[in-house]
């Protein structure tokens, strides 16, 4: 009969060569007719059936020894030549090593089976992860990834901008773009700051009527005009230039897509005042009742875009409420619901975030970011602005230095407790 195991009595072999994981060469052992797990071939050699692993072979040998009580006394100390004898047949050099204590130790059947169960569970999970990853990556094919729309700011250096490796700033642009309309203004400009140092999601609204310097055109104008002048790049350049904060990425969507998002995640909860409900009913053409409701996409969109009720400060506050409500609802959604919603909206999103980055961002959001508390800020900040008219336009002028400092402290320095304590 062929040898099945490495010889461990050779003193020239290293300890690593004597470890239990290396003692097997072939899946055969001395026959025992009482073990139905093994069958005798035509040549008289008993072989292991297909599907059994090497731990099964070891278990069977140990059981054979326990049942016959003929072998256990023949196991000698570590490093010696050991023999197992049965029916005058000899299999040389079987040594069972406990590598933690250098003692001969039997491996119990229950432990082997436990390993097999654990390995099976891990294998199934890995398969599910691979399938899910492939599906997610396939979904990402619909992403409108346009890297050339965000380049380095040519009008201010990075050294002049506030930034931190602990904070990721993503500019959300909600536009009022219409079909076949080449130029469009940004209806919403909101900076979403993921503060990993203070474990917070920080939302900053930039008021569209802010009177700012647009460096690429070398002129002052309303902030939301920058989008119609030069798209996301000019908006980013203008915000960085005027407020001295680094913007890492942007996401631009037509505001109508919020209907798809809100409907896809099962609606969001909003508190609507009587005046807001009347405005929505009047402008939307359907009845909206005041109170706290779970609303669908149509009402959420009208709520976020109320224009003729009060000030731009209140309008941007409503937009932040919608974004916050979406984030809270996303945490309650199942993975299939989220994936189907993402698949529906991705083609309508334009961004400079590539597929790999977006998947990483999504995974981190599900694992941690979505559990961060949400805090808010608006720029110009309270007490730092005044109304003005320029060329017949109603605009907001503001103290630049105060707003630069306020924004820097809010995004990079203040904790959630600091911000809530100021309210």
General description of the model:
The chain has a 7-stranded mixed sheet, sandwiched between helices. A two-stranded antiparallel ribbon has the order 1-2. A two-stranded antiparallel ribbon has the order 3-4. α4 packs across α6 and α4 packs antiparallel against α8. Helices cover 37% and strands 21% of the residues. A hairpin with a 4-residue loop joins β9 (186-195) and β10 (200-206). It has 423 residues and is of the alpha+beta class. The chain is globular, with a radius of gyration of 34 Å. The N and C termini lie far apart (85 Å). Mean pLDDT is 76; it is low at 1-58, 64-97 and 99-105.
Helix/strand/pairing category? alpha+beta
**SSE order, one letter for each helix or strand:** EEHEEEEHEEEEEEHEHEHEHHHEHEEEHH
**How big a fraction of the residues is strand?**
15-25%
Taking all Cα atoms into account, the compactness measure Rg is 34 Å
Total E-strand runs: 19
**If helices are DSSP runs of H or I spanning 4 or more residues, what is the number of helices?**
11
Rough shape?
globular
Largest sheet: 7 strands, mixed
Parts with pLDDT < 50 across at least 5 consecutive residues = 1-58, 64-97, 99-105
Distance between the termini: 85 Å
Helix content estimate: 25-40%
